[in-house]
Specification:
Layout (H helix, E strand, L loop, with lengths): L4 E5 L6 H11 L3 E3 L2 E3 L13 E3 L2 H9 L3 E7 L2 E6 H9 L3 E5 L2 H10 L4 E6 L3 H14 L5 H15 L7 E4 L3 H15 L7 H6 L7 H9 L4
Parallel strand pairs: 1-7, 1-8, 2-7, 3-4, 8-9
Antiparallel strand pairs: 3-6, 5-6
The chain binds adenosine-5'-diphosphate (ADP) and guanosine-5'-monophosphate.
Length: 220
Amino acid sequence: MAGILFIISAPSGSGKTTLVERVRSLVDGLDFSISYTTRPPRGSETNGREYHFTERFTFEQMIADGEFLEWAEVFGNYYGTTMAALDHAREAGKDLLLDIDVQGAVQIMKMLPSAVSIFILPPSPEVLEMRLRNRSEAEKMTCEAVIEERLRQARSELEQVQDYKYALVNDVLDQATAEMRAIVLYERGQTNGVEEIAASCLTTAHSPRLDAALESFQVG
Ligand code: ADP
Ligand code: 5GP
């Protein structure tokens, strides 16, 4: 394993967590960096599994101590990736997936230009709204203001898609999973049938699916 750093960004509710889990079950040697956050756990989230849930004071102390590779404030809460996560993956000879927002992604792209960036888009605002609602109903945490805020934020995040090397539209889950798997394998240097799929996800390729998703969000 080459110790590749994959930056994954997506508007909340696009299906990033679902996709990352599926790809990790299909591809060996892919570690996931568990971020620190000051937001409270959602639904069945468990400390140390989805996130390290942390008090604001502790997070600010970690910033002061220089423990973060990057951090950002998202929806009023802090989120950050520790240097230690990167070191552990390197020591284990594994590639590392970072699930981070666009602010954190820009920081890493500047610091580590060899990082491979992937943006996941929902196919349309209507589908994104439905996924956000379904998820929050399943977690018994529906809050109109939160859903509206996340939809607004999605549009502004999508403006950054061209800063990423790859973009994939998570419409049909199996197709999006195959695309993300192809990108990981292609970046590792494997070319047995994955290069065509990976190339179709380059943002410079302007695929019809990407253009349609951006148009539906009125991003152009
Ligand atoms: P994120 O991590 O980007 O916030 P999640 O992975 O939690 O998003 O997905 C949000 C919701 O959408 C979840 O209920 C998930 O099961 C559902 N979902 C994800 N991908 C798809 C897909 N391709 N088709 C239908 N539902 C999906
Ligand atoms: P959620 O609260 O829905 O899990 O995540 C909200 C946003 O925070 C998502 O865009 C997610 O990618 C981002 N995020 C999660 N962890 C980190 C992190 O360590 N750093 C940064 N910058 N963003 C993060």
